TrEMBL record:
Keywords, comma-separated and alphabetical: Amyloplast, Glycosyltransferase, Plastid, Transferase
Keyword Glycosyltransferase: yes
Name assigned to this protein: Glycosyl transferase family 1 domain-containing protein
Subcellular location: Plastid, Amyloplast
Cellular-component GO terms for this entry: amyloplast; chloroplast
Taxonomic lineage: Eukaryota, Viridiplantae, Streptophyta, Embryophyta, Tracheophyta
Pfam annotation, one family: Glycos_transf_1
């Protein structure tokens, strides 16, 4: 569960513009503001991908590192914000600097953690990438869906539990799902999922908007999570272990 008061696109004090599932118009304003803030070309039509997480082997940063050169050959911007805990991973810091130098119009990195920036990336990006090796729960994918940002995640743990892969043929062609999960954990499968998301964003606007709204309308509150947690204990007492 997440704090739905702190993470609320209709009232978030860190955003350029507020928006909701009923009025998505403010989403693109936040995208433009983020592009300006980070010094990227202002191209609202260009898919903007974000990553928020530690520079850590668990978070799959090595997959991003190896996949970025191929991905940036496409017409896409990649925004990265990294949360550094402890001493950090210097090789990834160095890689970010190299990536920024090589792709000045497409890549930005932020070493450290900044709460307002994390909110603005969540709101301003179109896609949030989470290639974690393992993730017992995961919160960033919940924040992303709350803000109408489509998660592309490795199908593990809480990521698999909370992100439903988009199915364009469900509901008599109306579609279903809130993002994409990919497996196995490999650069090729990650890039396939990202490219599928990007092509949907570009060529199927109605389907994309449906995904945004479905994600924003889900209940990620602590109250809802607590009810489910209590249910597990109720089930356990229904059939106690044999002694």
């Amino acid at each position: 569960g997440i704090d739905v008061n702190e993470w609320n696109p209709s009232s978030d004090k860190h955003l350029e513009a507020h928006y909701s599932a009923d009025d998505l118009s403010g989403k693109v304003q936040n995208k433009i503001a983020l592009q300006k803030e980070l010094g990227l070309p202002v191209r609202p039509e260009c898919p903007l991908i974000g990553f928020i997480g530690r520079l850590d082997y668990q978070k799959g940063v090595d997959l991003i590192r190896w996949g970025i050169p191929e991905l940036l050959n496409d017409d896409v911007q990649f925004v990265s914000e990294f949360v550094m805990l402890g001493s950090g991973a210097k090789m990834y810091e160095d890689w970010m600097r190299e990536a920024e130098a090589a792709h000045k119009d497409k890549f930005r990195g932020w070493v450290g953690f900044n709460v307002p920036i994390s909110h603005r990336i969540t709101a301003g990006c179109d896609i949030l990438l989470m290639p974690s090796r393992f993730e017992p729960c995961g919160l960033n994918q919940l924040y992303a869906m709350r803000y109408g940002t489509i998660p592309v995640v490795h199908g593990t743990g809480g990521l698999r539990d909370t992100v439903q892969t988009f199915d364009p043929y469900a509901n008599d062609g109306q579609g279903d799902g809130t993002g994409w999960t990919f497996s196995p954990l490999a650069v090729d499968s990650m890039l396939w999922a990202l490219r599928t998301a990007i092509s949907t964003y570009r060529d199927h606007k109605e389907s994309w908007e449906g995904m945004m709204k479905r994600g924003m309308e889900k209940d990620y509150s602590w109250e809802n999570a607590a009810v489910q947690y209590e249910q597990v204990f109720e089930w356990a007492f229904i059939d106690p272990p044999y002694c």
